[in-house]
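Project standup — Tuesday

K.O.: blocked on the structure for the chain from last sprint. Re-posting the sequence here as requested.
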Amino acid sequence: MLFEELLSQAIINGEVLEIVYLGGSLSGKPREIIPLKIEKDKLHAKCLLSDEVKTFFKNKIVSARLGEETTINNQLVENEIIYDYDNIKTFVDKNKEIIESYGWFIGEIDDACISLHSFFKNGKPKRTKDIVLSYSEFTYTSVYDPEKGEFERVEEKMQKPWCLYAKSQPTINFKYLKSALEKFMFFAEKYSPKKEL
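H.V.: unblocked you, prediction finished:
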């Protein structure tokens, strides 16, 4: 079900939605609301935690869940995430709440690497990396030298140094970080642990 359809259904039926919203005191954390009406780019809803009617900007709602149905707000993903960064750490600093709203634990992180981990039922993050994006400038191969009668290690500069691994997907290499980050976020949403709940 599309994001807009889910909101409309909840309004018509007076149902409780669990949303992740980027803003306010609970920014990036799930909260329960009863949607009341949509007004252009805003959603008016009763927040069950505060028992008050609040206004939410639709493009700041990351995801919405109605019963077993979870949907990601593609408007936010397309319009709010900017992928043009010099390194991974800067990208994550700006988009950490969105990544965590998908249900991920952000593990290893620096300028050239990030790993995402799902959680055990007890709430602790798993050591196994579900998604990894890393940079490797060189590749190494062994070539047999018949004159010397031994193998030599050959270093070659990578044409596509950004390497992305995600679950059962084959590893994908990218020439540019921007392209790698776009696919990384696609996989972060596609394999979101929240979709498995």
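K.O.: great, moving the ticket to review. The CA atoms of residues 165 and 171 lie 5 Å apart. The chain has a mean pLDDT of 87.
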